[in-house]
Automatic annotation (TrEMBL):
InterPro entries listed in its UniProt record: Acyl_Trfase/lysoPLipase (IPR016035), NTE (IPR050301), PNPLA_dom (IPR002641)
Descriptive protein name: Phospholipase
Active-site residues, as the UniProt record annotates them: 66 (nucleophile), 180 (proton acceptor)
Keyword field contains Transmembrane: no
Top-level taxonomy: Bacteria, Pseudomonadati, Pseudomonadota, Alphaproteobacteria, Hyphomicrobiales
Length: 332
């Protein structure tokens, strides 16, 4: 019987082809993308997504924290090109136009101008109506709970996720006051897995920040400290000068030769905190593939350097694309 089938096949009998069942290709594993926080460094996420798309890799699940929540929402809504165009057009002066200072509130910046700009891209789209499964991470004030925002307006969720304490005012959603999710889960791998991702690609924007986590065992005052203190005491007008409103405002906003300004203090403090939390969370729940753009020279608030950040993100993704392909093949 078998020999007859072989003879008929070699003679061009198409009936044999009909009897041979063609196996369907195995389904690809669901791919989750965890986009980390990092303020202006988050524009690197755009470059990562561009490279993944170029290689035919399309995440099914997108979870973001802080700026990762913003980029993730735009991607899940199919509006990444519009967001990229806006980001590339930012200038240092243009960034300042989005800062609606609110000295009487619970943050230096009200955030309404930036939220209005985000609404132009996302509109009133609900998270549950997005073409891709999406969630973002926020932190509840008072309790420290990690909040996964999985329904409601995408704009409101993203705004809560990037509400950096002290800079932006907290956002009230579902009866809770919420702030930046990077306080508890800077790179939300755990959320991506919980939402059904079999393979998780994570983007850590802060892996290139060197010098974090060291210990200086013995430290104290030095001669420079004593000299500066002596200079202040020896000037009769010293106390009046340092307490004047003009001097205090200058110190807060632009700093001085010997002391940092308020934005650099908050930025560095946030970097240190985020680095420690990220290491701890990723040690317990590592991603299948980690993409780590080298963004150490990019400041947290240098949003006008979007083009540079996008290119750095693209380079990092290209370096990791073989690892991504191998991980997908291993689960297929």
């Amino acid at each position: 019987m078998l020999q007859a089938l072989i003879r008929r096949a070699t003679n061009g009998d198409r009936a044999v082809e009909a009897t041979i069942e063609k196996k369907a290709p195995p389904p690809k594993p669901s791919v989750g993308l965890a986009l980390g926080g990092g303020a202006a460094r988050g524009f690197a996420h755009i470059g990562v997504l561009r490279v993944l798309a170029k290689h035919g890799i399309e995440p099914d699940i997108v979870v973001g924290t802080s700026i990762g929540a913003v980029v993730g929402a735009c991607y899940a809504h199919g509006k990444l090109p519009e967001f990229e165009t806006w980001a590339r057009g930012l200038t240092a002066r243009g960034v300042l136009s989005y800062l609606d200072v609110s000295l009487g509130g619970s943050g230096l910046i009200g955030g309404q101008r930036l939220a209005s700009r985000l609404e132009e891209t996302l509109g009133d789209t609900q998270i549950e109506d997005l073409p891709k499964r999406y969630a973002c991470i926020a932190t509840e004030l008072g309790t420290g709970h990690e909040i996964w925002l999985t329904h409601g307006r995408a704009v409101d969720a993203a705004r809560a996720s990037y509400a950096l304490p002290g800079i932006f005012t907290p956002v009230r959603l579902g009866g809770r006051w919420l702030v930046d999710g990077a306080l508890v889960n800077p790179v939300p791998v755990s959320a991506a897995r919980a939402l059904g991702a079999r393979l998780v690609i994570a983007v850590n924007l802060n892996s290139d920040l060197l010098g974090r986590g060291g210990t200086i065992a013995s430290h104290g005052p030095n001669e420079e400290d004593e000299r500066l203190l002596h200079e202040m005491r020896s000037r009769p007008e010293g106390l009046r000068r340092i307490l004047s409103p003009e001097f205090l405002l200058k110190r807060q906003l632009v700093g001085s030769r010997r002391s940092p300004n308020i934005t650099s203090v908050m930025g560095d403090a946030f970097n240190i905190m985020q680095d420690r939390v990220t290491r701890s969370r990723l040690a317990g729940d590592p991603p299948d593939v980690m993409i780590s753009p080298r963004l150490g020279k990019l400041g947290l608030f240098e949003f006008h350097r979007a083009k540079e950040a996008i290119e750095i993100g693209a380079h990092a993704a290209e370096r990791s694309i073989d690892d991504v392909a191998e991980a997908i093949a291993a689960l297929t």
